[in-house]
Amino acid sequence: MADLLSTGVSGLLASQVGLATVGHNISNVNTAGYTRQTTTFDARTPQFNGGYYIGQGADAVSVQRAYSQFLTQSVWSANSGQSRALQYAGLTAAANNAVSGSANLQSALDGFFGAVSDVANAPVDTASRQALIGKANSLVSTFRSLSSQFQNIDQQTNQQISSAVDSINSLAKSIADLNAQIQRASVGGASPNDLLDARDQAISQLSQIVGVNVSQGADNTVTISVGNGQPLVNGTDATQLSTATNQYDSSRLEIVGPTGSVISNQFGSGSLGASLDFRTNVLDPARNQLGRAAIAMTDAFNKQHAQGIDLNGDQGGKFFDIADPAVLNSTANKGNAQVTATITDVGKLGSSDYIMRYNGTGWTVTTTAGVTVPSTGTGAAGDPILVDGMAITVPSGTPQAGDSFQIQPTRNAASTMSVAISDTNKIAISGPLAATKSSSNTGKGALGDLTVTDVNDPAFKTPVDIVFTSPSTYTINGGPPQNYTDGDTITGNGWTLKLTGTPAANDTFSVKPAGSASGDNGNGLALADVANKGVLDNGVTTVGKSYSQLIAQVGTAGAQANTALDAQQSILDQAMSSQQSLSGVNMDEEASNLLRFQQAYAASAQVINAANTIFDSLMSAVRG
Amino acid sequence: MRISTSWGQQQAVNSMLDRQYDLSQTQLALGNGKAIQTPSDNPSAAARAVDTNSASAQNDQYTRNIQSATTRLSVEETALSSAGDILDRIRSLTLEGTNGTQTDESRQSIATELRQTLKQLVALGNTKDGQGEYIFAGSRTTTQPFTIDGLSVSYGGDQSQRMVAAAAGLQVATGDSGSDVFMSIRGGNGTFITSAGATNTGTAVVGSTSVTDASAWDGGSYTINFTSPTRYEVHDATDPTGPALSTGTYSGDSGTINFKGAQLNITGTPATGDTFAVGPSSSQDVFSTVAGIINAFEMPGGGPAMNNQINAQLQNLDQAATSFLDTRTKIGARMNTLDQQTDIGADVKLQYADTLSNLQDLDYASAISKFSQQQSALDAAQQAYVKMQNLSLFNYLK
Predict the structure, then answer these.
(1) Is CB count within 10 Å lower at the N or C end of chain A?
(2) What pTM was estimated for this model as a whole?
(3) Architecture field, domain B60-187+317-348
(4) Which of B39, B133, B183 is the closest to A99 by Cβ?
(5) Terminal C-alpha separation, chain A
């Protein structure tokens, strides 16, 4: 009967393990990454007793995790997707806030052009002119403020990239350490459940930063690679990633692998992928679009301003200033060539950045995305490389094969914009030319619109007399006779003049420099009309329109990011639900298990009691 | 299916958080009345709102431009209306002066008054607008356009007209140069002018003239030469000794002379050898006209020479009055255009406001119903959470 005692004890012990596991489960109900554990019981090997076997009780043989590799992997992958979407949505929200905040470029543009109109309405009014300079300054500061908000977001992404790489490194290290501990603890086939959970949790954290590829190795270890197969954890070894500044742009961080190669473009998912993607696909295009608008504004307004005459009687100077395209040398350059770029045609200017590379004999130009851009010219001073509205020259130094430069035509342009005029007298509102009708004219010819077409015509300022030799013919400065019909437009040196009515023979009309005709507003009207002038995209897009395109661009990125976040969140919720359904702790279940093992324990104790009673009966019989 | 207790709780909390977020977004929208908080809420509407705002701001600017143009045109209109009154006064003074009862002295006193009106006319030519700019100076608006020296008035402005942008692609002139209004006035009857020969001794005076056949008038210069008080010859002025182009008879005290489509009414008796020149109109400024009248009145003796001059200048005066009227008609037409544009601008402004409101303003009715829906959703989520939390087997393990 000694067997009954040991059977009872086995039940007690087995129930204790069961109770301990239930207690562990209950204690860890809120532990992140905890996997519910279950105890497995086996009946002991029975004792052969002649013609039959007698049961020997039960053993707790293992404590196992309620775990599915597949479900856990799904959570990791959903984690990468959701955390990427979350980060992306956060960054695009920052960009959206930048364009919907107080720095509203459109109202600054409207205010500026309104002030131009006001000056055109009262050309000699100093207060209006002063107001125009004020509005110009607030326009420039709006450009600058938007640009600096975008720069701040860029700095944020830099910080995020750098802290993401730190986290990746520290997580890789702890996963490798856990691998080592698990390897040691797995001796004899036991499953170190809580260490496995800790490792899974670390991998889960890693998967939020970067998409992971996990495969099982020997001895319960895992091998992890990220990006395009970049190994991160191999058994007990962890690889360290690092950050380095971009070879061209020192304000930009790139991710560098252990061999020193830049691997930034390998990361698509996770919050790191979001930061990198956002920078390339939302932030850079937005900054370039803003810069392009600033360049277009400067170029179009300056060109028109240069056609006018200011209050001092001088040809209009620059109204706005803006920096030339930024040319950034590669840190890997071996030659000492210097490259400069200027914008020649705003209409052809795109929002790309370019890489210019020397192959030993000549230069090739590609976009930063690697698309080859057709270009002409050699880069010599007299033969600049012409590409997308830019002229690039290599004025000094000698390049070596493999040297490269990055050209950012528009990136920081908005932050370099400034108002070049502070003297109200230098605002050129008057038209450059004046048309007059001779007072001795006897015919009924009348002057129509005088339009400036090319202020750079060499003979632009040459006075011109249009003398009618008969009501239907005229000569220009004594040249060959030309035919006239009512309403004809006469083309001069960079200007056109419309004449109406019927002149008589010897009637004279003249076009000559206006001098200081301070009350004229011909150029002022043209300046106000710059607001409606297509200057970008080959003369299609106005400056204002390019800003609303920027709004649409940033807004669409934000809307897409929000939609993606919703989708990714529900994918993660699904994955988590499935995984938690299997691995999570359910308190009711644990409560019932608790009762179950408690009762089993009590019953086993009764078995021991029964064995004891039996033994006592035997003893009293013997004594008796 | 098993439910993980902590995940179940987390989801319940998440759903409460989501409901709270929805609620706070609706609350934000109700607070500022905007359907679009950031462009990502509705990118295309946000971009269109930017475009529409800009178009609306431009429209407002056009309205301001029109206001400034209207002010300027009103000043010009007032000045020209006064100038017209002055011309009327000059005309009646002139007619008074030609009355046969006048003496040298009385004509002199009329001339003195005329000198005064000339100065008034010049002062009107130098009218300034509200910004202190001379409105009749063309584009030289900071320089006084008309200066008077004795009886001679010179113009220092130019022929430019200031324009205003009244709408996209529509520019309206906000003034007329002094050259157009005061200086380049066609003399005579607008087609030709006449003048009596300086050595005439007869009493013939040229009265009204007209063009009877515009196609026959060739714009040349001619001399009418009285070979006797009743006969005249018309010569080409460039060839006075050549053959006569036409000849005719004159009644001796009044009649008309017709040649090449031109008609001259003549009264009085010419002396043999008296000449009258006929030539194409050239421009004569209104000040010279007035000065001509003054000079004629200050000429001692009066008589046909004075009458011939006065008649010619009266024609010029009529031309000047026509010029003022024409200009005022143009001003009226411009003001009409501007008024129409103001109306159109006001309509367009309403449309833009409507579009903007559709694009970015909150629909309060639906927002409030959304708000109460979201409120009940949050309430339900909270109540469900509390109820769920009470459901635990452990509650019964006592």
Answers:
(1) C
(2) 0.86
(3) Up-down Bundle (1.20)
(4) B39
(5) 20
